[in-house]
Amino acid sequence: MAVLLSIGQSIIVGRQGSQPLQIADMTVSRRHCKITRVTQDEYELEDLDSSRGTVVNGQQIYQTRVRLDTPVSLGNFATSVGQLLGFVTQHNGGGSVKLVGHPQESNQPPVKTLSIGHLERVFDEYEENTKNISKQRARQQGRRALPMQIGMPLIMFVGIIIDVAHVDDNTALAFKMVLSLVCVVLTLVLTLTSFSSNDTMVEDTFETNKQFQIDYVCPGCKNFLGMNRPVQALLNSGKCPYCKSRFVR
To answer: Taking the model in full, what pTM does it have?
Structure first.
């Protein structure tokens, strides 16, 4: 069944896309490209940072205008825009080919009703993971500054004790130098240790955001619904900003 896109509507194409043509080729990314209808006869084809790229008329593209009969290669998978949208080819006399079922402009496109209640758990988990990473970063910064925060008052306190005890200047200087050296060494050790922890937090942040962008998508068109748009905001808007499907809990 062909996808009848209205002007401005989009569809995600890939192994996990919402296109009618099923794709199992592993050179095609899960979310490989996006097709958006821009005029009656033209579409915009946009590569979604796919691993093997999108090729149109022999040229790798990031974004370009195409028609239904435009040949497209997704990785090693050769097809056309029309075939991706579910239109069948019909051979005419003389060797020409046309696509059957060209979408006509519709003033009242069919509207789907989609449940997005399950996305509350996805959003809550993302928020919780983000907060935990922020807390880890704050604790790491506190530990790094701890030796100097404690060491400086301790050096001053030792200085007062030395003055009261009438310790000679050379001994007092030695005590202060040892305490200062200990503080510097501890600060250096904690700073070096924090480098590996920081790398881990950066990786955790990247994976958290990546997984969220995979999971927090419209059940219909599979487009990402935004970093800062909780489910209640989506329900308040009433529909998907991409495929215009109606959202319910």
So the answer is: 0.42
Name the one residue in this structure whose structure tokens are 């005029």: 39
* H runs (alpha helix) in the chain: 81-84, 119-165, 169-215, 231-237
The vertex-218 CA angle with 75 and 78, nearest 5°, equals 15
Structure confidence by residue, pLDDT tens digits, 87-137: 865 545 544 444 555 444 444 455 678 898 899 999 999 989 888 888 887
- Tell me which residue has tokens 């909780």: 230
- Beta partners for residue 88, in sequence order: 100
Q: Which two tokens stand for residue 176?
A: 């202060």
The amino acid present at 205, given as its one-letter code, is: T
100, HSE (Cβ side, Cα atoms, 13 Å): 6
CA 150 vs. chain centroid, Å, equals 41
Pairing type for strands 246-248 and 113-115 reads parallel
Please write down the long-range contacts of 95-99, taking CB distance under 8 Å and 24 or more positions apart. 97/69, 98/69, 99/68, 99/69
Residue 32 tokens, joined: 């490989």
